[in-house]
UniProtKB/TrEMBL annotation:
Record EC number: 2.7.13.3
Catalyzed reactions per annotation: ATP + protein L-histidine = ADP + protein N-phospho-L-histidine
Gene3D superfamilies per record: 2.10.70.100, Histidine kinase-like ATPase, C-terminal domain, PAS domain
MF terms in GO: ATP binding; photoreceptor activity; protein histidine kinase activity
Name recorded for this polypeptide: histidine kinase
Naturally occurring in which organism (per UniProt): Caulobacter segnis (strain ATCC 21756 / DSM 7131 / JCM 7823 / NBRC 15250 / LMG 17158 / TK0059) (Mycoplana segnis)
Length: 754
């Protein structure tokens, strides 16, 4: 910053001058998506230099965010928004402005369009401390940038003020009216009379002044040769021929020609007069008047130049022009407009031909828009998109811009442009369908989405992401650092590492992570499966992080349950095999014949299978003691032979298996030797639960009655040993069998958590 002279900031040349050039240099561009000036691309720097160096109103919107830059000449168009609008993002402009220009900018940035031109747009501007109406032709042009995704870095907005042209047109209309009145009322600027035979021209002062002659001498009469030097050299021969023809034939004449003034300026003259022949048939007298039409000629030239400019702009933008005089029923379409509407070049323009080209469903709206535009009490403007049907049957979409002009409350002119916007409409329709399809897919998959602007820090969540993080207030702006705080501590480092890898320009990994979060408001633990992608700017820095997340809590719980179930099954299969091995070893002994051993073995396997069936129906989460007893009763004599009594008790899988095998052994012995061997015999199974040290204990009593008299066996069989020894060990309790004469009584005590 040293030195006494002004030094241009890096990237801007000294051609960029004025208030806005200084503001651009002083602006903190690093806080915008454009980044610091020294990081700008050559295309952006060149475009900014061009905008700031010109005295024409120009602006530039750059990048996907359409950041605004403009020059001094453009500033009045912003009114009170200047200078705060320097560096403003498109998304921060008014909703109406975004809605009306979003598609235009999208077409330009995507390379779909080569430019747009809007003519004769009026604006209220503050000039010399008062508001004035000004007219502009606004053009939007794509600015190439090789570093941009589609080769287009931004949009150049140029405003060519045509206020003078519009006013000139209005003045021309007034001049033409004055001209017509002058002709009708013989409004003479100058007059002369030429005595042909005496070669004396008598002229008034204005005629003399325009021809560079002293008025007093002209009034006294001078030869015609005194007046001809003022005629423009290019017009001398033409005027001489016209004069000679009139003199020879007699009658009227009218011509337009130029006069060179003493100061070198040119005046256009309209002359009209009559020649008279003498009695001998020879020229005798020539008289007439002149009107100064210099202003009219200047307006005509300016209007023609403006018309050429407008035609070139319309052609560049692919627009057709139309002109309509409603009061006289006159229409005009240029060649481009006829091509767009599919109207043959030789077809006479008429309202019927135009309305025949409009789609029947859109014709009422078109008629209403035209009527509103030509209404003196309306805005005088028309902007409408509608369909047309060409003579070959092809349907196209067109957009029209029109303006009506009024005189004394009557619309005397309705002009505008038309462009074919079929491709744009089709693109918009495709985009809407794609967005709807995506929305339905996201809804169906219960997906939450996020969009994080890394440069601005703005983070946007969908409603589902709020729910995933347990946040109730959906209006609360999300915060990226706070969101990471909600991640389960055991997963936080892994998530942060995945985010860092995705945002590292040297790695640029796709973000994918499964992790737990703790709901901020509801404190519920959830599993999320998140995938995302980071986008990087031209300078290699991350600028945007978007992604989606799915709540996979149910899946994770199912996976955990499945793992536990598989582990439990492995354990139970091993235990079952060990149990079967023990049953086989005890069943097939020398104490029993082979048929008896096979029968006992089969019965015990059935009991084991029944217990497994019951646990399977309960997903191996345990079994209800009452159901275990009911199942036993159904398999061994029916419910009327058993009396069940006790509270609801939930058994663990291990306890349910062991208790089922024990009750099966008791029931088998009762059928063979005990109460179930007699028709009147009954079995009572009663249980209760008591508090114990560390866990509850189950007390179960099996008692038989009304069966044959019981005598104690000489030796204990497998069933008794299974109950008294195996069951006690399995259930961390005790089991005793007593052989009373009235019936067998078995007492079982078990730790319920065993």
């Amino acid at each position: 910053m040293g030195g006494s002279g002004s030094v241009a900031a890096p990237g801007l040349t000294m051609l960029a001058r004025g208030e806005m050039a200084e503001r651009v240099r002083a602006f903190d561009w690093s806080s915008t998506p454009l980044g610091a000036i020294e990081t700008w691309s050559p295309s952006l720097k060149f475009a900014v230099d061009m905008v700031l160096a010109t005295q024409l109103p120009m602006a530039l919107r750059w990048g996907p965010e359409l950041v605004l830059l403009y020059n001094d000449a453009y500033a009045p168009a912003l009114g009170e928004r200047h200078p705060e609008y320097l560096g403003v993002l498109f998304k921060n402009t008014s909703a109406d402005f975004q809605a009306s220009t979003r598609a235009l900018y999208a077409d330009l940035l995507s390379g779909a369009s080569r430019g747009f031109v809007f003519e004769k747009l009026s604006f209220k501007l503050m000039r010399t401390d008062r508001q004035e109406t000004a007219w502009f032709t606004i053009s939007y042009s794509p600015v190439p940038d090789a570093s941009a995704p589609h080769g287009v870095g931004g949009v150049l907005i140029s405003a060519v003020e045509i206020t003078e042209t519009v006013k000139a047109t209005q003045k021309l209309r007034g001049a033409e009216e004055r001209y017509e009145l002058a002709r009708e009322a013989a409004g003479v600027v100058g007059a002369w009379e030429w005595d042909v035979r005496a070669n004396k021209v008598y002229a008034d002062a204005r005629y003399a002044e325009l021809h560079g002659v002293v008025p007093e001498l002209a009034a006294a009469g001078l030869p015609v040769e005194a007046f001809t030097p003022a005629v423009h050299p290019d017009d001398v021969e033409r005027i001489a021929v016209a004069a000679q023809t009139s003199l020879q034939t007699g009658g009227g004449f009218s011509e337009e020609y130029r006069l060179v003034q003493p100061d070198g300026s040119i005046r256009w003259i309209y002359t009209r007069g009559r020649s008279y022949l003498g009695a001998d048939g020879k020229p005798a007298r020539n008289t007439g008047v002149i009107i100064d039409i210099t202003e009219r000629k200047a307006v005509e030239a300016a209007l023609e130049a403006a018309r050429v400019d407008i035609d070139l702009a319309a052609q560049a933008a692919g627009m057709g022009r139309w002109d309509h005089n409603p009061s006289q029923g006159l229409r005009y379409w240029d060649a481009r407009a006829r091509t767009i509407f599919g109207i043959p070049p030789d077809a006479p323009p008429s309202t019927s031909i135009f309305e025949k080209a409009v789609h029947p469903d859109d014709l009422p709206a078109v008629r209403a828009a035209v009527a509103a535009a030509v209404d003196p009490d309306g805005s005088g403007l028309m902007n409408l998109e509608y369909r047309i049907v060409r003579q070959n049957g092809v349907t196209r979409w067109v957009e029209v811009f029109g303006r009506a002009f009024f005189e004394r409350g009557v619309c005397v002119r309705f002009v505008g442009v038309v462009s074919d916007v079929t491709e744009r409409r089709e693109a918009i329709d495709r985009l809407l369908r794609q967005e709807e399809t995506l929305r339905l897919a996201i809804d169906a998959a219960d997906v939450g989405t996020w969009d994080y602007n890394i440069e601005t820090g703005d983070l946007v969540w969908s409603d589902r992401v709020y729910a995933m993080f347990g946040i109730v207030d959906l209006s609360e702006p999300p915060d990226i650092s706070a969101a990471l705080d909600y991640v389960h501590p055991a997963d936080a480092d892994r998530v942060r590492d995945a985010v860092a890898r995705a945002m590292d320009p040297a790695i640029r990994a796709d973000y994918a992570s499964e992790y737990r979060v703790i709901g901020r408001d509801d404190h519920v633990e959830r599993w999320l499966n998140a995938k995302g992608k980071v986008f990087f700017g031209p300078n290699g820095n991350p600028v945007r992080f978007v992604g989606a997340a799915v709540d996979v809590t149910d899946r994770k719980r199912a996976e955990l349950h499945l793992r536990l179930l598989v582990n439990e099954m492995n354990h139970r299969v091993k235990n079952s095999l060990a149990t079967i091995q023990a049953i086989a070893a005890q069943s097939f002994t020398d104490a029993h014949s082979l048929p008896q051993a096979k029968e006992a073995f089969a019965d015990r396997l059935v009991a084991l299978a029944e217990a497994h069936d019951l646990l399977t129906r309960e997903n191996w989460e345990g079994a209800d003691l009452h159901k275990v007893a009911e199942r036993l009763a159904a398999l061994h004599g029916g419910a009327d032979r058993f009396e069940l009594s006790g509270p609801a008790v939930r058994l663990s899988p291990k306890t349910a298996l062991s208790l089922s095998m024990a009750l099966h052994e008791l029931a088998t012995n009762a059928i063979k030797y005990g109460a179930l061997n007699a028709p009147a015999g009954r079995v009572r199974i009663a249980w209760d639960v008591s508090a114990g040290q560390g866990a509850e204990r189950l007390h179960l009593t099996w008692s038989e009655r009304d069966g044959p008299p019981v005598t104690p066996p000489a030796q204990r069989g497998f069933g008794s040993r299974l109950i008294e020894r195996g069951l006690a060990a399995e259930l961390s309790g005790s089991a005793t069998i007593e052989f009373h004469p009235t019936g067998v009584v078995c007492q079982i005590q078990a730790l319920l958590e065993a």
